[in-house]
Amino acid sequence: MLFNSLAFVVFALVFFPIYFGLRGRARVVFCLAASYFFYGWWDWRFLGLLLFSTVLDYSIGLAMAATRVESRRRRLLFLSLAGNLGVLGVFKYFDFFMSSFERTAEAIGLGFSPPLVHLILPVGISFYTFQTLSYTIDLYRRKIETPERDVLLFAAYVSLFPQLVAGPIVRADSLLPQLRTDHGIDWPRIGRGLELVLWGFFLKLCLADTAATVVNPRFAELEAFGSLAHLVGVVCFSFQIYSDFAGYSLIAIGLGRIMGLDFGVNFDRPYFSRSFSEFWGRWHISLSSWLRDYLYIPLGGNRGGSLLTVRNLFSTMLLGGLWHGAGWTFIIWGGLHGFYLALQRALSAPYAAAVRVLRVPPAVSSGILILTVFAATNLAWVFFRAESIGEAVRILHIIAGFDRMTLPPGQQIIGIAKTFMIATVVVAVDAAGTRKSIRDRYFASTPLRIAGCVSIALGIALFGTFEGASFLYFQF
Amino acid sequence: MRQALKIGLLFLVALFASDRLIAFGLKHAVDHSQDRFVRMYTGRARADILILGNSRADRHFPPRRLEALLPGKRVVNLGLGGISTTLSEALLLDFIERNGPPKTLVLALGGLNVDPASVGDMRLFGVYSNRIRAVTRHHDPKLYVAGTLFRLFRFNNEMFLRVLLGIVKEEKDRTLKAPIPSRLVERLRRRTPDPVHAFPENLESLRHIIDCCDRNGIVFVPVITPVLEVNTPPNFGEWRREVGRTIGGRAAIRDYSTLVSDPALFHDASHLNADGVDVLLARMIRDGTFGR
Question: Which of A5-9, A425-429, B101-105, B256-260 has the lowest mean pLDDT?
Fold first, then answer.
C-alpha cells in the first residue's frame, strides 16, 4: 500500500481511532494485524517471508538467551545471518550473481549457462532483513540483555507498517521498549506528527514527482538530449531521490510520532554537507549507522592505519551499494562513495592548510566544500539511476562533450522551472531549519504553525503530482 | 482536546478560505494572459483558419509563419501535446461559441491515438468551459471531485504556468528548432516502432467534428503530418484505412506522412524542425490545403 494512495488514507482513518481505543496486548495484536494487512495489500504471498524472518529471529533470540556457551551463541548468530541473508540472497541477488558469473565465464571462453530463478523482489525485504538482523546481532553482543519473549510483540516490531517497506531501519533496543509502552493521546505530539507527514507529502508529491517528469525522459531516450539538458537532469535526479526518500521517511516518522513512537531522524539536510563523511552522517542515517555499527567497525574501522581504513571504507560502501540493488551500477555508486571518503581522508589536511594560508573566509570555504560534495554526489547518482554502466557512461560523455548547450522546449522547460522553484523552497526551509532561533520561534507559535501547514497544503494542491508514483526506495 | 479541536478547525477554515481566495486571484490573473487558449476562451481569437490536434498540430502549423505565408488570413492554433480528438471536439465547439466559426478547420489526425481519458493540462480551462469540466468529470471523477473541493487543483498543471508566463510575454510560434541527433536516428532504426491505435471515442468525436463543420459551413481538412521513416508504425496502413472509413467521402485526408524523408528535417521521432516545417507548409500551400 502506498502512502500516496486513497487506499492508505482510508487505512489511516480506520487504523488510528482503533489504535488509540485499545490498550496493552490488544493494541499490539491490532498493530500486527494492521501491518500484515498493509503489507499483504501489495502481495499477500510474501507475508510468508516476513513470518519466516520473524519466527527465525524470535526463536534464535530465545535460544541465545538459554545458553552461555559462546560457540553455541556464535552458531546461532550464524544461523540468523545465513537464514536472513540467504532469503535476501535468493530473492534479490541470485540472478544477478549467476548472470555475472555467466558473462565472466563467457569472457574467458567457458560455455556455462547457470539456472536463473526470475523471482519478484519482495517489497521492503532489504529493510526488514536489516532491522531483524540488528536484533540477533545486538543480542549476541549483549547490547540487548534479554530476548523478547512475546512473539506477537516481536512480530509487530519486525512488521510495523509505517517503516516496514522503506525504513527507517529502527533497531530493536529502541523500538521494542516503545512498543511495550501504552502511549495515550498526546495532542501536541500528534500535531507534530501530522506536520511531519504533511511536509513528507510535500517533498514527495511536489518535488520528487515533478523532478521525475524531467529525469525520466532523459534516461528513457538519452540521445535525444544534449549536454545541458542531461546536466540539468542529473541535478533534478539528486532533488528527486532526496525528496522521494526523505519524504517517505518523514511520513513514516510522522505516523510513528502520532502512534507515540520515535523512529529517530533519517535525513538531516544532507546536501548541506561539507564533507562526504558528514554526508553519510546526514543521508539515510538509519542505514549508514547500521553499516557503520555492524560492518565498518567490526571490520576494524579506522583503527588499523590508513590502508586498512581505506579497505574498510571501500568494503562498507561497496556492500552499501549492493544493498540498494543487485546491479553493477549500484556497486560502482558505492565504490565511488568509498573513493570519495578515502580521498577526503587524504585531502582534508592539505585543504585546511591551504584555507589557513590563503585566509579564505569560512563562509567561502564552506560554500566551496558544499558545492564540491554536491557535485561529486551528483556524479555518483548518474550510476545509481542508470539502467546499465554503459548508459551512465554515455550520459557523462554527453555532458562532458559540451554540445547542444540548450534545453528542450515546451513542457520540459516548464517542468525544469517548476522543479527548481520547488527545490528552492525546500532548500530555504531546510536552511531556515538549521537556525535554532527560527526553529524555536516557529514551534512556539501556534498561528505560525497553522499558517505553515496551510501553506504546505496549498502548495500540494497547486504543485503536487497525483499520479500515484511509487517511492523509489520500494525497489530496494 | 478542546484546544486540539480549535486548532484543527482553525486550520480547516484557513485552508479553505485561502484556497478560494487564491483561486479567485489566479483566475483573474489568467484572464489577462495572452495565451492562445485564454484568448480563445475570452473571445479574443477570431480566425479564418483554426488548427486543432495534438503536438503534431501544435509544432507543425506555426500561426505567425502561416499568416506571413497567407496574407490576410488570421490563423489560430489550438493544438497541444497529449490532446485527444475528444478534447479537440470540445475546443472546436467552445471556439465557435465564443469567437464564431472559422472558414477552415485543419485537424491533425495524430490526436486520434491519444487516450481520451487523459485530460492532462486542459483541465485548467475547466474554469471557463462546461465541456472541459464534463470531459474531466467523465474520465477522471477523482480529479473532478478534488477540483471541486480544492479550487487550486484546477490550476495544478503546467498549462497554468505557461498561461501565467503569457501575462508578461506574448506567445511565439512553437516550431521546434534543432535537428534530430544522428545517434537517436540510429537507435530508432534498431527498434521496432510501436503500433498506433485510434480510440473508438476519438473516432466518434471525429464524426461529430465533421458534423459540426457541415452545420457551420467550415471547410474540414484532416491532415496526417510527416513521419520519420524509421519511426513509421508497422500498422500505419491499416490505421490510415480505418480513419478513412470513419471520414468516408465527407473530406479528403491530406496525407503528408511520406513527404519528408530526410531525417535532418526532423527535430525528434515525431516532429519536424523549423526547416522541415517550411517544406511541409510550402507543399500544403501549393496543394491549396489552407484554401485558395
Answer: A5-9
Give me the residue from B19, B150, B268 closest to A224, CB to CB.
B268
Q: Do A451 and B14 touch (CB under 8 A)?
A: yes
Q: Which fold has domain B48-116+174-286?
A: Rossmann fold (3.40.50)
The nearest CA of chain A is from the CA of B200 a distance in Å of: 25
- Residue A110 CB coordination number (10 Å): 9
Given the C-alpha cell 489504535, which residue does it identify?
A19
- Tens of pLDDT, residues B218-228: 999 999 999 99
Average pLDDT of chain A to the nearest whole number? 89
Q: Where are the domains of chain B?
A: 48-116+174-286
Q: Where are the beta strands (DSSP E) in A304-411?
A: none
Q: Which of A118, A324, A337, A397 is catalytic?
A: A324
The residue length of chain A stands at: 476
Give the A:B interface size as CB pairs under 8 Å: 64
Between the alpha carbon of residue A99 and those of residues A96, A108, A126, A327, the distances in Å are 5, 14, 21, 11
By CB atoms closer than 10 A (0-12, 13-18, 19+), residue B36 is buried
Quote the longest CA-to-CA distance of chain A.
72
Could you report the per-residue pLDDT of A56-109, keeping only the tens digit for each? 999 999 999 888 888 999 999 999 999 989 888 888 887 877 787 787 877 777
Q: Is the pLDDT of residue A159 over 90?
A: yes
**Bond into B234 cis (ω within 30):** no
Residues B90 and A298: their CA atoms lie apart, in Å, by 68
pLDDT category of residue B210 using cuts at 50, 70 and 90: very high
* B10 vs A450, A457, A461: nearest CB: A450
Q: What gap in Å lies between CA A149 and CA A59, rounded to an integer? A: 9
Residue A404 CB partners (closer than 8 Å, separation 6+) = A225, A226, A227, A228, A229, B178, B181
Write the CA distances from B173 to A409, B30, B276, integer angstroms: 12, 20, 15
CB-count burial class (<10 Å; 0-12, 13-18, 19+) for A50: buried
Burial class, B21, CB count within 10 angstroms (exposed 0-12 / middle 13-18 / buried 19+): exposed
Q: Are A345 and A275 in contact (CB under 8 A)?
A: no
Residue A61 near residue A135 (C-beta atoms within 8 A): yes
Q: Which of A44-48, A115-119, A444-448, B279-283 holds the top average pLDDT?
A: B279-283
Who contacts A454 (Cβ-Cβ below 8 Å, separation ≥6)?
B11, B14, B15, B18
